[in-house]
Design brief:
By secondary structure, this protein is α+β, with helices and mostly antiparallel strands. The chain is built from nine helices and 21 strands. The chain has a six-stranded antiparallel beta sheet, covered by helices on one side. Strand 11 and strand 12 form a beta hairpin. Helix 1 packs antiparallel against helix 2. The N and C termini lie far apart (67 Å). It comes from Clostridium formicaceticum.
Length: 427
């Protein structure tokens, strides 16, 4: 069997030595065959490396999230970007819906409540009162409700698939804000609105909930999503194992510190490599589109300076190195000490202490830990057959984000130890 260029060279020399032809002719044939063999080996090695290599990031996929006032977005437009487009309905669209007296989404808001209080309030299914004032000062009454907004969690799921396509290990986004976003739905009109010609203003009365409502703030993160990568017009076709791989060279413009991930809705990515400001992408199909979606992770080097100007806390999924980190993800070491190491390695949980950790067959109390990463399905181990790990935490200072942080760390542990279910107690 010919395994490499050395074996092939020996085979060529042996075959040519047994041929009755003039030496000069044989030397020429040998040189040609050796050069063809060298080219073939280099070519296949290039294909193999491109296919086998994952995206080698020079930066980081740490995700930082916070809540910023809409009027301040321009101030941080090179660091933080809206997770969901904050655009609103035009006045003409609002007026048309009101005159037809149909239910519609008027706005989106953040509700600044803790896990328990928020859950209790949602279960009440409250209706609130509002009124519209037209240009003549006439008032029209209506009711409105708050419904959970799932757009942010859909974006999170999309990012998970982008990580997967780029051969990068998924890391849960630590953002309590995105799970407390609600749509304001105007639903019940109690007056005849057919004669309204122009809206002067709309007033919403949230009652006792008013002080927890933030309408002018939106969740942001350090990921810029844009489409500005032009594909090469004539891709290089790389044949390997009876398949054609298409190779595209794409140029990116950044300072070299950003991590850049690619996505395509209609083309499956086989491999990505980066060198400087060049990305090389391999696909099984020829891409017919002019642009691909780019996810650019902006590095935050001066977090302390930034946080001084931002009113709300900045959360991240940044994890500090700790012992046996690599072994954990390869399932070689699974101990209570390892779980404790994972918890305290996260910046936002470094003040948390674990008082107790137990493995149980069943446990009815505590806080459930399966609220995050619901889009990741684990079919290998049936849910009912998994044992429960109960962790009792000592939290020095509880606030409206405590339960969200607990769910976040459980989501991380669930990724590493999928054979368990997770419950928590806070002391």
């Amino acid at each position: 069997m010919v395994r490499n260029l050395k074996d092939l060279r020996q085979l060529i020399e042996t075959k040519l030595a047994s041929t009755d032809s003039p030496d000069p002719f044989m030397d020429t044939v040998k040189d040609v065959l050796i050069k063809i063999a060298e080219y073939q080996e280099q070519f296949l090695e290039e294909v193999r490396l491109n296919i086998a290599s994952s995206y080698d990031s020079t930066g980081s996929t740490d995700v930082f999230t916070t809540l910023i006032e809409k009027t301040q977005l321009q101030k941080y437009n090179n660091i933080f970007f809206p997770i969901v487009d904050p655009s609103r309905l035009r006045d003409t669209e609002i007026l048309r819906n009101i005159k037809k007296q149909i239910a519609f989404k008027f706005d989106t808001c953040y509700v600044h409540l803790g896990y328990d209080a928020l859950k209790e309030w949602i279960e009440k299914d409250c209706r609130f009162e509002g009124k519209l004032i037209d240009k003549n000062g006439t008032e029209y009454a209506f009711n409105f409700k708050l419904y959970k907004n799932y757009d942010y969690e859909k974006i999170e799921e999309e990012l998970y698939h982008v990580f997967y396509k780029n051969n990068i290990e998924w890391r849960t986004i630590n953002s309590p804000y995105i799970r407390k976003m609600f749509d304001i739905i105007i639903c019940d009109h109690m007056d005849d609105t057919s004669s309204i010609e122009e809206i002067h203003r709309i007033e919403l009365n949230f009652g006792d909930l008013e002080k927890y409502i933030y309408r002018e703030y939106i969740p942001v993160w350090n990921i810029e999503i844009r489409e500005e990568l032009c594909l090469q017009k004539r891709p290089k076709v790389l044949p390997l194992e009876e398949k054609n791989y298409y190779k595209y060279d794409l140029s990116i413009e950044n300072d070299g510190e950003e991590t850049v991930l690619l996505d395509s809705e209609d083309i499956e990515i086989e491999g990505i490599t980066r060198e400087g400001d060049q990305l090389t992408v391999l696909t099984l199909e020829e891409a017919n589109r002019s642009y691909w979606k780019l996810y650019s992770f902006k590095p935050i080097n001066s977090l302390r300076d930034i946080s001084r100007d931002i009113k709300h806390p900045i959360f991240s999924n940044h994890q500090r190195p700790y012992s046996s980190h690599k072994n954990t993800f390869k399932y070689f070491l699974k101990t209570a000490a390892e779980i404790k190491g994972i918890v305290v390695s996260h910046d936002d949980l470094k003040e948390w202490n674990i008082l107790d950790l137990q493995v149980l067959d069943d446990y009815e109390g505590g806080i459930y830990g399966e609220d995050y990463n619901v889009f990741i399905k684990n079919r290998l181990i049936p849910y009912d057959l998994r044992k429960i790990i109960l962790i009792v935490f000592d939290v020095k200072e509880k606030n409206e984000f405590t339960y969200d942080l607990l769910h976040f760390i459980f989501s991380q542990l669930q990724l590493i130890f999928p054979e368990y279910r997770w419950r928590g107690e806070l002391k």
